[in-house]
Design goal:
69% helix; globular; 481 residues
């Protein structure tokens, strides 16, 4: 039996070998030789500092150890989840119970039916948050109902690493540089986003949403509206993360794509209603009853939840005892953000004579808006994968074609810092660690922590959105997908 320490050593060697083989600039090295950006004195001093043997070794060692820890934890997590006697987390159980009820032609959207089914299937009884997904999710979950819960959960967990690999493939397609080093940096930066591991851990669907949206943009950029529309329509089973792409494509006059996506949604919703023995009016009545119950759960309530990362929680955290002021404060931030993004879209469309072409910056802004102004949990951070690609593309463009600008690099570094906030370093090792010291469900969390440390993810979402806006507006050209 090989000890875990020896496995660590093997993984360290494998990671170091992989990075050594892929740390090559390739053609970019020749292009960057005459770069005005790299010839700036500040950059020259930085390059000299990192070229020192001891500094170079420390940097490589840190990267190798971080990746090793990430791989070990992810591998252990997959092994642990797939070998447990039953799924440990709620998210998958919701989907599994919904699939089982659909197989019995019962409606999971009904609060009483779902609670009763959850108790009988999972043996967990009590007040269960309502199932608030739309009916078009039922056909996608149908296959889970054919298996025992343990087998279904194993399949569900295995699908997540496959989806992550496809996300990385799509991100590398959008990355403009062909160098191995930058592609390696892109892949590492994306997988370190907390949403991917957390989504795997709780068995949610956000990774599948990110996968469909990423490839939807790839197909749409090639004017393949049929597969793009099908992917967009399928992804709409979680409207909070996807709905803003519909008006975006309407602005772009991609009507065929929008029509196919709406047709896909209607088709899946009709099947979902039919197999659950429901009607549209019945579903709406159940949703109106169930949504407030779900929203009042401690993990979802804006006044109590410490895990939400959207901007809607800022008002309740700053003005917990003034609901009206809290709502106005959150609405003001959201409206200002929507106004800025809308203004950018208008300027961009005016500049390109209302072209149908789509741009990576626009995709990132829609993804950020989807997280920022709707209910979002850490699983939604998977939507930031395009932001990683955008920042790398922007840096490459600046190095190749522009002189160094302190102001612009400061904005770029702000975006990098905001992405760093959305890694496990902040979410798991800081927020979760601190959260365990107080009974936050009972409102014991100190006010100063609520509006500072525990609001960092929300501030970072706002920062990433503004960073992309500034970089996109000040670019000499737009990065077309």
């Amino acid at each position: 039996m090989i000890s875990f320490g020896l496995w660590n050593l093997f993984i360290i060697i494998a990671v170091a070998f992989f990075l050594n083989r892929n740390w090559r600039l390739g053609q970019d090295k020749k292009v960057w030789q005459n770069s005005l950006f790299l010839k700036h004195p500040s950059i020259q001093k930085l390059r000299y500092f990192f070229s020192k043997p001891i500094v170079n070794f420390i940097c490589q060692a840190v990267v190798v150890l971080i990746l090793t820890r990430f791989l070990c934890y992810t591998g252990w997590l997959v092994y642990d989840l797939t070998h447990r006697p039953e799924p440990p987390y709620w998210d998958f159980k919701w989907f599994y119970v919904a699939a089982k009820l659909a197989h019995q032609h019962l409606s999971p959207f009904n609060v009483e039916v779902f609670n009763s089914g959850f108790c009988s299937i999972t043996k967990v009884c009590g007040l269960i948050p309502s199932f608030v997904y739309p009916p078009n999710i039922i056909p996608l979950l149908w296959f889970l109902g054919y298996f025992p819960m343990k087998t279904a959960f194993t399949i569900w967990i295995v699908l997540h690493p496959i989806a992550i690999a496809l996300v990385l493939w799509g991100a590398n397609i959008l990355l403009e540089s062909q160098s191995r080093a930058l592609r390696t940096i892109c892949s590492i930066s994306i997988v370190l986003l907390y949403g991917f591991v957390f989504d795997l851990q709780v068995g949610n669907v956000a990774t599948f949403i990110a996968l469909m949206l990423l490839w939807m943009f790839i197909f749409a950029s090639k004017n393949q509206d049929i597969p793009a529309g099908i992917l967009l329509g399928t992804a709409l089973f979680k409207p909070t993360l996807v709905i803003f792409f519909i008006p975006y494509f309407l602005i772009k006059r991609r009507f065929k794509l929008v029509f196919i996506s709406i047709f896909t949604v209607i088709f899946l919703a009709f099947i979902g209603l039919a197999v659950t023995g429901n009607s549209l009016t019945g579903f709406l009545q159940d949703a109106i009853r169930g949504f407030p119950l779900w929203l009042n759960d401690s993990s979802n309530n804006a006044y109590i939840s410490m895990s939400r990362i959207d901007l809607r929680v800022l008002g309740p955290r700053f003005f917990a005892h003034s609901p009206l002021v809290a709502k106005l404060f959150s609405d003001l931030i959201v409206l200002l953000l929507i106004g800025l993004v809308s203004w950018y879209f208008y300027k961009e469309q005016s500049r390109t004579a209302w072209s149908k072409s789509i741009y990576l910056s626009e995709m990132v802004l829609i993804s950020c808006l989807s997280i920022a102004i709707n209910y979002s949990q850490p699983t939604s951070l998977v939507m930031l994968a395009p932001a990683v690609v955008f920042l790398l593309n922007d840096l490459c463009f600046q190095i190749k074609h522009c002189a160094f600008s302190r102001q612009r690099m400061s904005v770029w570094l702000l975006g990098v810092g905001c992405l760093f906030v959305q890694t496990a370093v902040v979410h798991r090792w800081l927020l979760v660690f601190l959260g365990k010291r107080w009974n936050w469900k009972a409102g014991e969390l100190p006010y100063i922590l609520k509006v500072t440390i525990f609001s960092l993810p929300s501030y970072a979402i706002l920062g990433i959105t503004l960073t992309v806006l500034v970089l996109a507006i000040t670019s000499f050209r737009k990065t077309e997908v």
